[in-house]
Design brief:
Blueprint: H1 2-5, E1 10-14, H2 16-20, H3 24-32, E2 38-41, H4 44-52, E3 59-61, H5 70-75, E4 79-82, H6 85-98, E5 102-109, E6 117-118, H7 122-129, E7 135-142, H8 151-171, E8 178-180, H9 184-187, E9 197-200, E10 225-228, E11 231-235, E12 240-241, E13 247-248, E14 253-258, E15 275-278, E16 281-286, E17 294-297, E18 309-316, E19 319-321, H10 323-330, H11 334-339
Parallel strand pairs: 1-2, 1-9, 2-3, 3-4, 4-5, 5-6, 5-7, 7-8
Antiparallel strand pairs: 10-18, 11-14, 12-13, 14-17, 15-16, 15-18, 16-17, 18-19
Length: 348
């Protein structure tokens, strides 16, 4: 990704949601060793976890930071997102009491309708903000709502960001170290989206932000999800499997139990994983997913035994189950598939 945007564009590695389910600390360390110079998280607690792990790189907390937590933002050398004038006054007051300024990136709403200063209000907002002596504005940013679907609307957002925000602010003598807008989909779209910083999220982990967006050659998914068989049993015909007796064996069936359930991110709902890989072959889930166990029909796979590797996401033999395929089964997107893998599972 860094090679794609070049040396003049800074790379912010987004490691929120436990690094999109991959492990935030490992993801952050790897990104910083490979071209990233800034990290982005969603919450203050995520940022503090990175600091506690010894990571000293700049970190932007992209969503809400309570004014009562400004002391921690300053103490741990973090950057907060600022998107409201009342919030700005609260930040300034808290920083003044602490005795040091708080560093912020101001978020602009160019058409997503979530957090952010409306583009029409930008100039008076910044004039007022500049009067707050304990606010240090390092950057300004916006977020694309449909960069993975609608190129024209994304261009409109870029144009609004330039014409109604950046140009008037520059005319008023305001400059910022960082200007950023592009998410993963925006990075692999028009280079006009980049400004002087980009935010790589899902693409950082080798996953496409949309099916039609191709990642650079050589990029591949970083995550595999594996477990092992903990029991194998031969059940007679008409034998129930799992809670609710929703699955009844049709004949004599060999069932393997794996120690993964909905508490680990394997959905219990009717739309759940359809298959896993065992011995390089696909085996269907049967019965309801329990909190920490589920059952697999391995009648067609010879010699399955306790300790055998089971792949929920990833490759085994000549086959592969991708996060995109799982997303189709679940009726969702690959983002949700990987971010809902529970933190209690060890990452290696």
């Amino acid at each position: 990704i860094k090679s794609h945007v070049g040396e003049d564009v800074a790379l912010m590695a987004i490691v929120k949601a436990d690094g999109y389910g991959h492990g935030a600390v490992t993801a952050a360390q790897t990104a910083l060793l490979n071209g990233a110079s800034y990290l982005g998280v969603a919450t203050l607690s995520e940022a503090l976890s990175l600091r506690e792990a010894g990571i000293t790189a700049p970190i932007l907390v992209m969503t809400y930071v309570p004014s009562g937590s400004v002391r921690q933002v300053i103490r741990y050398n973090l950057t907060a997102s600022l998107y409201d004038l009342e919030q700005g006054h609260e930040f300034d007051r808290a920083a003044r009491e602490f005795g040091e300024p708080v560093q912020v990136h101001v978020k602009i709403d160019t058409g997503m309708g979530r957090l952010g200063v409306l583009a029409d209000d930008v100039v008076p907002f910044f004039r007022h903000l500049k009067s707050l002596q304990f606010i240090n504005i390092e950057g300004i940013f916006t977020h694309f709502s449909v960069a993975d679907e609608d190129i024209d609307y994304t261009r409109q957002q870029v144009e609004k960001f330039k014409s109604q925000v950046l140009f008037p602010l520059r005319a008023a003598g305001m400059r910022f170290k960082y200007v950023h807008a592009a998410n993963s989909a925006g990075i692999f779209g028009d280079s006009e989206n980049w400004f002087n910083m980009v935010r790589a999220g899902i693409a950082l982990y080798g996953l496409r932000p949309a099916q039609h967006i191709l990642l650079p050659e050589g990029m591949k998914p970083a995550l595999s999800w594996k477990t092992t068989v903990v029991q194998v049993k031969d059940l007679p015909p008409n034998h129930p499997v799992g809670y609710g007796n929703t699955y009844i064996t049709r004949g004599r069936e060999r069932i393997a139990i794996i120690p993964v359930g909905y508490a680990d991110g394997l959905r219990r709902s009717p739309q759940t994983w359809r298959e896993v890989l065992i011995h390089g072959q696909r085996a269907p889930l049967v019965g309801r997913v329990s909190m920490e166990k589920c059952a697999i029909n391995v009648s067609h796979i010879p010699d399955v035994s306790i300790g055998d590797e089971v792949v929920l996401i990833g490759a085994q033999g000549n086959d592969e189950i991708t996060a995109d395929e799982v997303a189709e089964w679940l009726g969702t997107i690959n983002y949700e598939v990987v971010t809902t893998i529970a933190p209690r599972l060890p990452r290696h």
